[in-house]
Amino acid sequence: MFEDLRSYLDHLKERDLLHEVNVEVDPVEEVPEILRHLMWKRYPKAVLFNKLKGYEDWRVVGNIFGSMELIKIALGTENLEEIGERFLAPFKGKAEGVTGKLRKLSEMIGMGKYLPKKVRKGAVQERELEPDLLSIPTFKTWPKDASRYFTYALTITKDPDTEVHNFGVYRIMVYSPRRAVVHWQVHKRGAQNYLKYKKKGIRKMPVAIAIGGDPATLLTGALPVPEGIDKYMFAGILKGSSVPVIELDNGLLAPANAEALLVGYVDTEELAWEGPFGDHTGYYTPRDLYPVFHLEKMYARKDPIYYGTVVGRPPMEDAYIGKATERIFLPLMKWLIPEIVDVNLPPEGLFHGIAIVSIKKKYPGHARKVMHSLWGLGQMSFTKMIIVVDEDVDVHDIGEVMYAIASTVDPKRDVVIIENDVTDVLDHTTPTPPIASKMGIDATRKWKEECGYEWPERTEPDPKLVELVKSRWESYGFPSEVKPE
Q1: E strands, 172-287, where?
Q2: What residue ranges define each of the domains in the chain, with the CATH number in brackets?
Q3: Please, which pLDDT band fits residue 240 given cuts at 50, 70 and 90?
Q4: pLDDT tier for residue 209 given thresholds of 50, 70 and 90
Q5: Which terminal residue of the chain, N or C, has fewer Cβ atoms less than 10 Å from its own Cβ?
């Protein structure tokens, strides 16, 4: 597996999956516009900008996770679900019920094979620089964004009670050379750690911000790892080996092979205005108050590479990251809720917006039971609409899903509305985030107990005629590619 961002890019170059731009470009506004256009066109290569106007010491890379092929290369697997199975392997068959299984997951903190490995000095410490956030080629992605933003930096914190580390991908608005505003939503683990420090009366909460790193660690930053599980350990599971880390003066562990590292603290008594920012919804999110990060030290490798992404109306790079999340965590969802067959979180549904789930239906009301179980699982609690279909419906074929809805759903009987429930803070459709309504649609074929009558029989061809037609297909003169399966 790849030890850092550079080795990953070298590998992509060998496979002709890296495009290098060697003319001078403005990284603040021109680069994000280039990347946005490429992502809309589903460009399948990572893009490295080697000459930056005003930032001669830096290079910028984007779209490194811009296709499922790139993500599979980054994680060294052809089957992303295998990673989820690896995660669950120690616990299969050991606990019954969702509560017991979730309790078992918390014990994964002790899995020594994947725990981070401390090293005395990391590549990221090649140089200590004058602390200056403005010296980094951060993006201003959309014209009305309030400022420049870190869009894919890893914000590192730890729980002050358990010392379990977390790093998340939160947008960070640059205010000045040494101040920035961290947009961590109230449901995120970074925000929960912040509230613990605040409750304890600790004004300076240790925070580090890593730029770049090995691709498995970078992807882990965006994954909804269950609460209580150390993200460095989960990154080790994705990577297949421990993540090398350095211990900072403020007690945090940071990726040893990052490209740059910003060390400082968040003041638990200081808030500042953040936004507007053009987000993944395709709309600007309005201003709000968030905690302030203070930069104290800054480290960087020689010739550092800044990794940033752009977000907006799908498809963007985060569409593929979201799809990878879906596949990696499908085994976990199936372990916790065994009747689940498959799940589709469509990028156009903004992931938290719509979930399509197929189940092995075993009793009346089963679809509703699955809806409520999913709404009780971590970030699935943000899902605004859940559509449940039978196991023979391909959840990734929207035509099949639409047919299932049209042929099984009576709106009054089969639509569930939940009021005053938790939702994504970024959901501008609700007037009162993070509280909103949700909808579930039972698009399964109904049992008599659910509808009061015998459900009609589905039309199916005569198996003998199917075999006859298949055996004689060549004699009909039709192309082989349309032969019945």
Answers
A1: 172-176, 179-182, 204-211, 244-247, 253-255, 260-274, 277-278, 284-285
A2: 5-307 (2.30.110.10), 337-451 (3.40.1670.10)
A3: confident
A4: very high
A5: C
Please answer whether residues 390 and 401 qualify as being in contact, where contact means their C-beta atoms are separated by less than 8 angstroms: no
Average pLDDT on 423-446 reads: 84
Contact present, 221 and 231 (Cβ < 8 Å): yes
Q: Which of 4, 214, 279, 414 is labelled catalytic?
A: 279
Q: What are 446's two structure tokens?
A: 């109904």
Q: What is the mean pLDDT of the chain?
A: 91
Instruction: Express each pLDDT in 245-292 by its tens digit.
Output: 999 999 999 999 999 999 999 999 999 999 999 988 889 999 999 999
Q: 279 an active-site residue? A: yes
Other C-beta atoms closer than 10 Å to the C-beta of 475 total 7
**What per-residue confidence (pLDDT) applies to 247?**
95
Q: Count of CB atoms within 10 A of residue 341's CB?
A: 18
Q: Which two tokens stand for residue 380?
A: 């699935």
The CA-based angle 203-206-208, given to 5 degrees, is 145
pLDDT at 83 exceeding the cut of 90:
no
Residue 375's SS3 state is: helix
pLDDT attached to residue 421? 79
Q: Does residue 282 come out as left (phi exceeding 0), alpha (psi in the -120 to 50 range) or beta?
A: left
Q: In what order do the strands lie in the sheet with 305-307?
A: 18-21, 46-49, 59-62, 305-307
Residue 193 — pLDDT band, cuts 50, 70, 90? very high
Query: Torsions phi, psi of 456, nearest 5?
Result: -65, 155
* φ, ψ at 380 (rounded to 5°): -65, -15
Residue 47: CB atoms within 10 A of its CB come to 20
**Upstream peptide bond of 434 is cis (omega within 30 degrees of 0):** yes
